[in-house]
Amino acid sequence: MKKEKLGGMDYFRLAAAFLVVAIHTSPLSSLQGDADFILTRIAARVAVPFFLMVTGYFLMPRYLFGKSGDVRPLTGYVKKVLLLYAAAILIYLPVNLYAGQFQEAGPGELLRMVVFDGTFYHLWYLPAAVTGVLIVWLLSRAFRLPAPVVGGTALLLYVAGLFGDSYYGWIEKTACIREKYDGMFRIFSYTRNGIFYVPVFLVLGAWISHIRKGGKRGTDFAGFILTFVLMMGEGLTLHRMGMQRHDSMYLMLPLCMFFLFRILAAARVKPAEWCRPVSTWIYLLHPLVIIAVRGGAKAVHLEKLLIDNSMMHYLAVCVLSFLFAVCLVFCMEKIPPRGRRAEQGKERAWIELSRQNLHRNVEILRGLLPEGCCLMPVLKANAYGHGAVLMARELNACGITSFCTATVTEAVQLRKKGIKGEILILGYTHPSQFPLLRRYRLMQTVVDASYAKILRKYGKRVKVHLKIDTGMHRLGERWEKINEIGRIFRYKNLVIEGAYTHLSADDGISPEERAFTEAQGQAFHKVMAQLEKRGYHCPKIHMQASYGVLNYPALAGDYARVGIALYGVLSRREDADCMPDGFLPVLAVKARIASVKEVHRGEPVGYGFGYTASMDRKIAVLAIGYADGLPRSLSNGNGQVVINGRKVPVVGYICMDQTMVDITGIPDVKQGDEAVVIGRSGDCEITAYDLAKQSGSITNEVLSRLGDRLVRGWAE
Ligand SMILES: *Cc1c(COP(=O)(O)O)cnc(C)c1O
Hints:
Bound molecules: pyridoxal-5'-phosphate
Distance between the termini: 23 Å
Strand content: 5-15%
Mean pLDDT: 93
Structural class: alpha/beta
């Protein structure tokens, strides 16, 4: 079973939208007043914080925990919400005017409406979300406050907000405090706004995303039930005591939300992406539907059923809002997105990256590592063809701050694109490039004892990790040469931040491989112990790459230098057995069909008579070739691509820039259509494993050779 996630959140979006509708229609009011209070003024108060936490969960971790300097996700979100807000203001304008809401409003009042209260009662959410997101971003990125301080500030704001909301009664009698609050209420009508209410939920969402693993499900359920019941008690008590000025904020609400959100985030439910826009539109449009239901009921004389019966009224509004939203989303999907933009980068041959799958892989890997062992993703060879800068940015956003590259040039490229954290160069760097190590704050591997001397001669301070050869016999000083290794610690200009070794047979678990790998681990630990004995300390040690994490968990250190598994595959399909469920490939490769043509019986296709049609065939020419990384050994029926959900074979020799495939019998294939080279289309999938097998190699090679002409971008 695949560990699909996010589905819990997706479906709860719908539930939350219906709870908001309940707040605005009081479904139980015609039955029992207290029950309605409990439902709409207490229980349903989880809805809005939930939406805010979703934003926090996906948008804020990179700023709060990842210290990302990339503002594009932030500006993207703000732009999207402001656009929605502008649209909503326009949609509700006729209602505002009809109700005469703007008649007495001066410019100050209008500004207060637009910035804080919303121009229609439910619209406050949109400016509040923007304000809150900006506050959290400012605190964590502009003021560079650590996450706990930002969280504490958000909590303090929330507590301050409580006294303008459910706990207003407490300060009502203290004139000086009350004056302050009443002064604030001249600027905004409620403390349930972007300043006091929103930040704490954004931080909570981000925090839950950051800690992800850990915590027992039972604890979360128990925590939720307990805090929910306490919140009921709190709400009812305050209500009875007449404390409440408004009833959106409870002391128990953030705690209750913490548990609820963890339950939803951990639910193993398939994603239901359609819920996302549908819930947004239900939220935005339900007040219109309320007006419509009331008007409609009066028109057909069904007031008793559809207005006076609060439950029926609520159901009618829910059903109609839902249908309205579904239709709207369906129609909007039919409207082609602004043509040029949607196709940008997809003109010829391209790579689509799945952010969701990358996040999932990171999450699973983190779950496999013991406490204190950090992921140190390996971004060499353009992140195994995935695009090193794209990957690093996204990983930064997941809170990852240690990376490896093979070369100094790769590391410099990452720095130039603003990648934060430490970067370890795994390979040899020429002395002429040593200044780059300092300029870009990189860590160099000391590839052996003689290289250490060269670094020493350079004279300037350089951060390094020592590489110990424990059996691979590639880079690293031989582990037996403990004196030579010890001497490196006396080189004053080398700042030894760590030491590592590389396992050469960790992809297998046969007795022989096991013995060899364990001997490597022992040799490494022996060196470390000897060094300690001489008073030389290595702050960080690491051994495992992808297979090490999966097959030899006991060899965990301070870092796991994970490459291939992060990208959702292993080297060979046979090895995928040792992979826990849930890893999904991050990358898909697609290409345009440049031309479709008939070939007659006896005619050759491509260079050198590699293929001759034995009967009339239809051929599609793809705009991708071996220069893009499609192995030439896939020529002549060895390899396939997927077109219109069907696998079709390569015919003739793959060319540098083009590849011919046989599409005889596949209907509706046109010039300009897409072909899937790696990835899924309909029920058909071609994986990096297939290409590796067909070309007699491993996925690592196939992926890392994907060329620069392929345009890389996130699919979601
Ligand atoms: C490439 C490399 C890795 C990553 O290996 P994967 O098997 O892709 O996880 C780790 N360490 C070193 C030294 C490497 O060269």
